[in-house]
Amino acid sequence: MATRSASRSRPRTKALRGWTLWRRLVQGISLALVIAVAARYALGISSSSIEAYCPFGAVETLWATLRDGAYLRNLAASNGVVLIIVVVSALLLGRAFCGWVCPLGALQDLLASLSRRLFGKRDPYPWNPPKWLDRALRWGKGVVLGWVIWASATALVPPLAPFCPYRTLFEFNANSLLSIGVIATFATASMLVERFWCRYLCPLGALLALTNRISPLRPRVNASRCVSCGRCQRACPAGIDPVTDGTGHPECIRCYACADACRRPDTVRVGFRQDDEQAPSAAGPSQD
């Protein structure tokens, strides 16, 4: 059996394939809709800001809604509706919202693509941190989630608002050193480490990660056909190995880049059935 490549460089193809093409279309539509809503609010055409459509806003305002029947600033019942839709879909699809719909995810993919073009094939950017460091940093989004839940108990405004790249970018807010710092940090980090915000800081991602183990629709690896070439691992924007980590891994964003990267028919496929889904014995035990 072929040895898995140690290289973490992403494969480059001249044309988008299958799932990736459809994902880019969905991401483009989602990003355009968010920009349209933000522009209407900025121009005074609408009274609803983009904050009212963020699913995580429902978490931030939960205490205030339960205690006082009110919402934190710029949040509304629409946040709860969007969160319910996202969570219900995640029970079936896992973190597909992160991979297909989230506008921050789309921006991070654009920045990673820009990074590869700027640095070229020989440079290590976007960089995949070593496993030990990556695992430690992934706890960051859980810490952020816990802090927001704690802080929201006494908050009058959404606790994450001053530090949130979604709000800062799509509210066209660059009028303070803090907001400029948020934008600069988000852009730089996303170019250095692919999907930095998703991997290490996004509290919504921490919530949705809980559904990945139980969601039935996912990429599935046929162990009898896998030759452990490493293409799926190098293609993964979340920095996991679909073979050894498994596609039920909490960090899988259901982008299906692994299915597009695989060149052996019926080896990595997207579906509900669990037949033949196990790592090849040479790949070693599953890791978190």
What does this structure look like?
Helix content is 49%, strand content 3%. The chain is an all-alpha fold. The protein has a domain at 18-210. The chain starts with 17 loop residues before the first helix and ends in a 17-residue tail after the last strand.
Rounded to an integer in angstroms, the radius of gyration calculated over CA atoms is: 20 Å
N-to-C SSE series? HHHHHHHHHHHEHHE
Mean pLDDT: 88
Across the major sheet, the strand order is: 1-2
Labels describing this entry:
288 residues, mainly alpha, two-stranded antiparallel ribbon, disordered N terminus, disordered C terminus
Task: Summarize the SSE layout with pairings.
Layout: H1 18-42, H2 57-60, H3 62-68, H4 77-93, H5 96-101, H6 103-119, H7 131-151, H8 165-170, H9 177-192, H10 196-200, H11 203-208, E1 218-221, H12 231-235, H13 257-261, E2 268-271
Antiparallel strand pairs: 1-2
Helix pairs in contact: 1-6, 6-9
What's the gist of this structure?
This protein is mainly alpha-helical. It contains 13 helices and two strands; from the N terminus they run H-H-H-H-H-H-H-H-H-H-H-E-H-H-E.
